[in-house]
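WP5 quarterly update. Target: Peptidase M14. Source organism: Eiseniibacteriota bacterium. Length: 648 aa.
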Amino acid sequence: MSRTLSLSWSRAASHTGVSIALLAALALPGRFVHAQPAPPTAAATASIYKVEFAAPPDSVKPGTSVTSTGVAPYWLTKAERSGYRQTPSYDETIRFCRQLTAGSQNVRYLTYGVSGQGRELPLLVLSRDRAFTPAAAIATGKPIVLIQNGIHSGEIEGKDACLALARDILVTRTRERLLDSVIVLILPIFSVDAHERTGPWNRINQNGPESMGWRASPIGLNMNRDYMKVETPEMQALLSRVFTQWWPHLLVDNHTTNGADYQHDLTYSVNHGPVVPRPIERWMTHAVSERIIERTRAMGHLPAPYLSFKDGSDPRSGIVDSPSAPRFSTGYPPLHGRAAILTETHMLKPYANRVKATYDFMVAILEELNARPRELARAVAESEAEIVTRGREAVTSRRDVVLATTSTDSAESFPYRGVETRWETSPITGASVPHFGTAPWDTLVPLYQLQRPTVVVRQPAGYVVPQEWRAVREKLELHGVRVRRLTRAWTDSVEIAHILEAPSNPATFEGHRPLEVKRVQLERVRRSFRAGDLWVALDQPQGLVAMHLLEAQAPDGLLAWNYFDTIFQRKEYAEDYVMEPIAKRMMEADPALADSFRVRLIRDPAFAKDAGARTDFFYRRSPWADPEQDRHPIARALRRPPESVFAP
Ligand SMILES: [Zn+2]
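Structure tokens (predicted):
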């Protein structure tokens, strides 16, 4: 009880600066301390909390479409019928999907699992060949595109754009040619439960629709951080039942951005640099950043790379365009040798504009794929081959893999289309706050894209996963990584990562305290493995995903996501009076050890004052110490096991 109270005091005090005396009074036994102010009345809410956007709310006449022509009233989407003030609920969305299947032979409505709250997860498959199973779709040889909407359910224009586009391809057939050479999978809503937590107060920075969904899943997880650790039921279903079955060549993930005001209506991101297999990186550079973006500009939009400024909200500091880590929708598919595009429309633009920008961007993407369908398929095949070949590479220097990069100071210049901005010191924040006008402010700003490696790891021959780490097997299977079970014991020299420095994040992040593995030393040891342990070969298309899960320094590896935290916890301790005589004998027997202890006492005053650390100095160097402590449990094999250990 007292613990809880003192915690709430310190939190409240640090946030509000309210005096401790007042808080003490409020915290008297039997009283309830409100962390939040009481909710305002409806009238006060409307006048006090409403956000006025520079762009007026939509003035589109209800019943008209900003994307499509010749649509009969029966086929209008809810967004179109409402003049883009509203977006359909989950049930209304499913109904429209079913309406599409009744109106066309070239679409099928499928479900691929259930959400945390028990809702079916919807998937539309659009195929001219009526290839409605993964095997049939892959057999066509056409590129497969997965368009994902509502991973952040409040950012929902992707859904309204895709419902209109599917109708225009399938029913009004004004866009039917887009299906000539491509198979299109659409997730109308991915985070379905969060989509139904709808309300007008969910996204303060966003200009419409009137009511929108929520960012995180009902258990508080951001699904666009869940691609590697795969902890939400929705992501488990997506990876195991969609991604690793249909194997889409391209994932398009539609969002609405946050950030500054500017003229750009559409921003996008693709991964680049040495973390991405080269053939797919080349495709994303030429097909997306050049041709698709050019096509989108020709449609009247103002596209820009995702606008993350080096210095907060000041565009003059330059745009930092760095690749996303594998936990993100744009970081994950490239590990499979596949392409991914992040769409972020500008949240201050009215909803109709954002639906149109997303619709046109999807059209531009599909036009590019129809114009050069084999190019993407070839880039994926070559990327997979690059991964497999590296897994078999005998020359060790060619086995180096870049797991993470950082931006360099080298910049190109980018024609930024901003708006006139005035900075004013605010009595509220005590700092300067931008006030955006409407006059255009066109300028050149630095664009930082060039990357340099920060984590490079030499690929082992493969990994051996001891069977007792059961979560590892589950994750490998969810990601489609092929594993082989040892049927007999195997002993060999392997490399084990000794984790020397890995501070955990001081704050909770996605229900974890992720580790930043800073220093690792590979130790060569002889290990015995049992029947039932798992062999993970790296000459497979999922070899890069396996490395990103199993390497100690991988930024989104299972070690970073706390799956092996027990290795850091000490299990046995020496009493000081037990260790002390042993320490004396160790010093007598080993003068070098004695010297290093004395040097440490002089150079490290904190150590000198810490009796426990001094005892531990000797304990850790004695045979009593736990040899497994701080060691990554996944073994890096120096060679593949003989076939005999897999024999039935
Ligand atoms: Zn988002």
